[in-house]
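Hey, I was hoping to borrow your eyes for a little while. For a while now I've been wondering how a particular protein folds. The fold is given in discrete form, as structure tokens running alongside the sequence. Could you read through the record and tell me how the tokens relate to the sequence? Take your time with it, there's no hurry, and the full record follows here:
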Amino acid sequence: MKKLLKYFLSLFIFRNSKHLADASEVKHYYENWTERYIQGFQNIFQSKKANTDNELVEYFCKQMQVENKMHLLDAGCGVCGPAILIAQQYDVKIDAVTISETQAKISQEKILEANLQKKITVHCEDFHDLTFLENKKYDIVYFMESLVHSNKPHVVIDEAYKKLKPDGIIYIKDLFEKTAYSKEELKGINYWVDYNNKKICLNIIKKEELLMILRNLGFQLEFCKLMEIPTNQDMGNRFVVENEIMPDPIINSLPPYLEWYEIKAIKPGPNIVFKM
């Protein structure tokens, strides 16, 4: 029954999508594009960023309620930019997962350079299946513009749920499809979402669909909101223009069809107070 529910849920979520990048496509994409991302974004591959990486990571840690002695899982770690900054500021252990061998190699080099090899462990694996982590349990599982690469987010969130301790936190900062309020707007949104999905190996969904997945798996939603610090998309815009993903005249005149949100939810445990 549970598998059948997941099947129909997946059909509902992706009913309007024309192109869904699978894990092998995402892996191939980052094997070829990681060096360009480093040139465009430095160590943190995120389109929506604060003024500095330190400011961004400090904000994330506050939202996630990171504390010393915690065990964190960075799901879709890139080249470990956030993980390294978190480990430098807190006495934590971090397991970092990337599907890209290139990213895993660069991450190892950066971790060694920062002398953080006792605090961060990199795994070149697919976050759709976290059984390689065996019996490990985490206080926090976080996704920083990485869940959008999954064509099966219900599977990824289910895996995260299994790996969280009771009262554990899942934190997701990502881009989502904007809600359309007219047929014309929907047509434009569908076109540009599909364009991005194909060009940069994404699987963009609506935030409401992700919230439904979280609730159906038993998470207690803490918040779903826009980021509360000043952010901009200058790096992201410059990156897509310089790499000919979108021509400059288009990106500068394009109506907003994506929304950047942060979502935090808690796995029920003895300390959870359920909200009505």
Notes: Residues 6-17 have pLDDT under 50 and may be disordered. The longest helix spans residues 23-41. The radius of gyration is 18 Å. The domain at 2-266 is CATH 3.40.50.150 (Rossmann fold).
